[in-house]
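Record passed on underneath.
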Amino acid sequence: MLSACKTGLGKIRKGEGLVGLTRAFMYAGAREVGVSLWPVDDLSTAALMTEFYSRILERGGGKTKITSAGALQGAQLKLIENRRYSPPFFWAPFILVGDSL
């Protein structure tokens, strides 16, 4: 998960498509990469990442069969429940690219 601002952006190259950090991580062998599409708020991002990784750790303990996509969705829904961070600006810039199996 690349939780800094605009990590999912890049440059369009003819014949190559979008070239940026996401592609670099995929070429390096990552099956999936989480990125942000616009500038993000530090506090809401910290809350989202804490919730996301808590859900990922639960997966590792065998308690549940949650995917990374499911962990991100659950973390985003948790932020939506928080009145302060419910506007999409705070949780919607984060997406997963790749295979979330």
Summary: The first helix runs from residue 21 to 27. The mean pLDDT is 91. The CA atoms of residues 52 and 75 lie 5 Å apart. The two ends are 15 Å apart (CA to CA).
